[in-house]
Structures are given as structure tokens and as C-alpha cells.
């Protein structure tokens, strides 16, 4: 009987996702596909199915698999390297670098980021454009954020660093785990406590080397 008060309400369409929500949904689907099937299973069709959308919808957001991996790398780096607030910027150099670079929850799962690095190495000869695009959202972004703070430290008299670009690259290598071990041995257990200890040691040695307070 139509109009009966006891009739269940008709469910409407789910609310449409905005661009950022859809992007995150797709990248989460990428992670899920990788966790289940490895990089070999990461295809546009598999990611679209995992995200509950058509391939056409997926391609409307990401042009190809390279763009998908590029976006994942960009999101991972945004989560792994914090943005400093105006209040943070007023802190001493050691505290700024700690807030910027200290290992976070994003560092607890590095299997896919390292798999992307392996993909870049393997496919770079045939797809140098892909390697270049993905790489630009990796180490260069970290080094640029560090260099900003080293330049700020020079301006404030907190340190005297002749080449902040080279120093930023050096600090990046000192505080981050080397990818080489995981690249040659993907099954190697990931030890977050060891990563944190390396960060503290690397930062302390660096700060003493540039004459800054630790």
C-alpha cells in the first residue's frame, strides 16, 4: 500500500565524493590490491574493482598506472614529512627538524613505497618519464623541506652551513632507512624502533656537525 507509514524509507543514492575523497579512495584501493597481490597484481582494472568503480571513472582521475603510483608517492611523502605550523617555525632548529622528519605512522608500512622504487628502477629504461615523475615526489620533496629550515637556521644564526642543498641531501640519508636492504630483500622485517633510533642518531650527529644545538 503506497504511502503507508510503516513502509521502509527508500534509500537514496550515496552522497557523491569530492575530488580529494575519491582520490584517497583510489589510493587506499591501490594499497589493498598491493597487499593482496603484490605489484604484479596492481593493474588499473584491479584498482578500479577494489575501489568499487568503473575503469572509465578511474581513468578520469588518473591517466595511467604511472600517474596512480605518482599520486600514491606524493600522498605517502605528505604523510611522512610534516608541514610546520607558524608556531613550529619559531622553535629552535633541532626541534623544527624533529617535527618535520621524525618517523611517523606513515613509516610503519613501507612495502608499497619500496615496491614503487623497484618499479622505477625496472621500468626507467623504457619509461623514463614515469621514473622522473614519481621521483619528483620522493627525495626531492624531502630535501627541499629540510633545506628551507637550514636556510632559516643560517638566517637566524643557529648554524653556519655553506651549502644547504648538499647538507639537506646528507641529512636525508642520515635520518632515513636505506632502501637498499629492502630492495634486495623485500621479506626483510621492518623494525620501526630501529628506524626511530637511526633518526635520533643521524639528527644528533648532523646537528653537532653544523654547530647547532641538539
TrEMBL record:
Residues 20-80 form the HTH tetR-type domain. GO terms for molecular function: DNA-binding transcription factor activity; transcription cis-regulatory region binding. Gene3D superfamilies: Tetracycline Repressor, domain 2. Pfam families: TetR_C_7 (PF14246), TetR_N (PF00440). It comes from the Bacteria. PROSITE patterns: HTH_TETR_2. InterPro entries: Homeodomain-like_sf (IPR009057), HTH-type_TetR-like_transc_reg (IPR050109), HTH_TetR (IPR001647), Tet_transcr_reg_TetR-rel_C_sf (IPR036271), TetR_C_Proteobacteria (IPR039536). Residues 43-62 bind DNA. Keywords: DNA-binding. The keyword DNA-binding applies. This is DNA-binding transcriptional regulator, AcrR family. It comes from Roseivivax sediminis.
